[in-house]
Amino acid sequence: MVTSALRTYVDTASAKEDVVLNAVEILTARETQIFNMLGKTTAINTIHAFLTDTLKTAASLAVAEGSDYTATALSTPVRLTNIVEIVAKNYKVTRTASSVARYHGQNELIRQRQKGIMDWANAAEFDLVRSTLTSGASGTAPKMSGIIEATSKSTNHTTHTSTTSWDATILDSLMRGNWDNSNGDVATDLFMGSVLRADTDKFTQKTNVVVNSVGITGIVRTVSSFQTAFGTLNIHTHRYIVQGSDAHERVLAIRPEKLKVAFLINTGKPIIDTGLARSGDYDRIIVVPTSNRRCKILETQGKPNGNHGNPESSPERGRSRDYNENILMKQCNNCKEIKSYSEYIKKSSKKDGLQSRCRQCTNERRRKLYSRYKDSALKYNKRWVENNRERSNEIKHSYFLKNRDKHNAWVRNRRSILNDAEGSFTSQEWEDVKEQHNHQCGECKLHEPFNQFRKRLTIDHIYPISKGGSNYISNIQPLCFNCNSTKKDRIKG
After folding, report:
1. Strands 47-52 and 344-346
2. Do 465 and 418 touch, CB atoms closer than 8 A?
3. CB neighbours (10 Å) of residue 420?
4. Are 83 and 262 in contact (CB under 8 A)?
5. Do 32 and 240 contact (CB within 8 A), yes or no?
6. Closest CA to 33 of 238, 322, 225
7. Which of 197, 232, 298, 343 can bridge 339 by disulfide, Cβ–Cβ 3.0-4.6 Å?
8. In whole angstroms, what is the distance from residue 386 CA to residue 457 CA?
9. d(Cα 437, Cα 78) in Å, to the nearest integer?
10. What's the CA angle centered on 468, arms 467 and 469, to 5 degrees?
11. pTM, whole model, 2 decimals?
12. SS (H, E, C) the chain
């Protein structure tokens, strides 16, 4: 039996019914700042290089009149090399674990796949920053030279004793040394751990800024940039600059435009392959890179061993679907983070079938626009529903069929609220109220049954329970589904 796969029977915690949340929160931080910041390009071999050269130290080149010219020694370019590193996340999920119905409603294989993409992104960032060069000979894993190692071999590198306290004078000195030992293109971004970031915020050269707004007074103590005579640094906090195994704290200053991430495999888009061998009742998946800002999913597929009844285990899984689901990672145009395809809203007019903004940024933008134009938006929506009643019902019914789990979760939450509310009523009292209203909606006056999708009047609390209303029949009115949904928890004046 495979022991490294995610299994169900031995996991007594996951075997219990989850009744608290409808989502699984990832507690581990995602760190991809530098990877997102750097440009991307294509490598043409496993060992790639670039050249640097220098000018002679400036001095007088004056020659005497009539004298012969004397040739001076020339410098030759220096070749800086690095190697391609294979960053892979390999994991297995049993068919049983994939088949178990979770309260969060997501198939476990798909959820672990999304976690694998996040793990791969964190690992790529970690090695990009901290990896040490390993050739890959004799069966060892090849590793690229990370930014910290490459910087430590240059002239722009300095150390201090353990008794030295981090202050603005040291940072000034580092920027001066960077300017003295470079062509003038000094570092623009400074990365550090939480300890030195807290110390940077305490620089004595900075005075606290008091911000006053309506009803709020705040003190800004953070340093977001550091300006010197040799250049300005943007300050960033990064989790991988310093690790627990490091003897000392460190800072890393870079100029992102001078660095790029080169990908050896560039297929234009990630693909789903079925090439991994499978020898038991599990799906084996590996996440590996293919092209810039994206990754490749390789997974084994086949008929399940045993009757699990899991549609995700069918041989059809992984083939083309209603939009380009092969795009597994993409960079958001707004927040610049690389996120999995599931965090984007579909848009057929786009080449990859996804919006350019991630779901979080899109929702935030929609909230701001709705807040700004709330009144006009409500009027427009109500007018559209009135003019397109049947189409509106079809859309809502289609959404209900596709999101039964969300609807059931809402019903459970609604029931818990009702259980805490004061009062109750019988089904006969509800029928009497409908009779009093002549079986008409209290708002639009439509008679039930309405159409094939929504045939009955719905119960509406005139004074919402969420705002202290009771559950007595005197607080109940009949509304059609559309009017009830539009009213929400508002109190009609």
Report:
1. unpaired
2. yes
3. 9
4. no
5. no
6. 238
7. 343
8. 17
9. 89
10. 100
11. 0.56
12. CCCCCECCCCCHHHHCCCCCCCCCCCCCCCCCHHHHHCEEEECCCCEEEEEECCCCCCCCCCCCCCCCCCCCCCCCCEEEEEECCCCCEEEEEEHHHHHCCCCCCCCHHHHHHHHHHHHHHHHHHHHHHHCCCECCHHHCCCECCCHHHHHHCCCCCCCCCCCCCCCHHHHHHHHHHHHHCCCCCCCCEEEECHHHHHHHCCCCCCCCEEEEECCEEEEECCCCEEEECCEEEEEEECCCCCCCCCCCCCEEEECHHHCEEEECCCCCCCCEECCCCCCCCEEEEEEEECCCCCEEEEECCCCCCCCCCCHHHCCCCCCCCCCCCCCCEEECCCCCCEEEHHHEEECCCCCCCEEEEEHHHHHHHHHHHHHHCHHHHHHHHHHHHHHCHHHHHHHHHHHHHHCHHHHHHHHHHHHHHHHHCCCCCCHHHHHHHHHHCCCECCCCCCECCCCCCCCCCEEEECCCHHHCCCCCHHHEEEECHHHHHHHCCCCCC
Structure tokens at 81: 């090399």
Sequence-ordered list of residues with C-beta below 8 angstroms from that of 417, at least 6 positions apart, any chain: 465, 466
Residue 243: CA atoms inside 13 Å, Cβ hemisphere, count? 8
Contacts with 267 (C-beta within 8 Å, 6 or more apart), sequence order = 290, 291, 296
Q: Note if the bond before 311 is cis, omega within 30 degrees.
A: no
Tens place of pLDDT per residue across the chain (493 aa): 555 655 555 455 555 554 554 567 788 888 989 988 888 777 778 887 778 888 888 888 888 888 888 888 888 898 888 888 888 877 777 878 777 766 656 677 777 877 888 888 888 899 999 998 888 887 788 888 899 888 876 666 777 777 788 888 899 998 998 898 888 899 999 999 999 999 988 886 666 555 555 566 666 778 888 888 999 999 999 999 998 888 888 899 999 988 888 887 654 344 444 455 566 666 665 555 543 323 333 333 333 333 333 333 333 333 333 333 443 567 788 887 777 777 888 888 887 778 888 888 998 998 888 888 888 888 888 889 888 988 888 888 888 888 776 776 677 567 667 667 787 777 788 888 888 888 888 888 888 776 655 567 888 888 888 777 888 888 888 888 888 888 877 777 5
Exposed / middle / buried, residue 94 (Cβ in 10 Å: 0-12, 13-18, 19+): buried
Cα–Cα distances (Å) from 45 to 135, 260, 263, 269, in that order, read 14, 15, 10, 19
Question: Quick one: which of 389, 375, 336 has its CA closest to 37?
Answer: 336
Tell me if 179 sits within 8 A of 173, measured CB to CB. no
Which two tokens mark 107? 């198939």
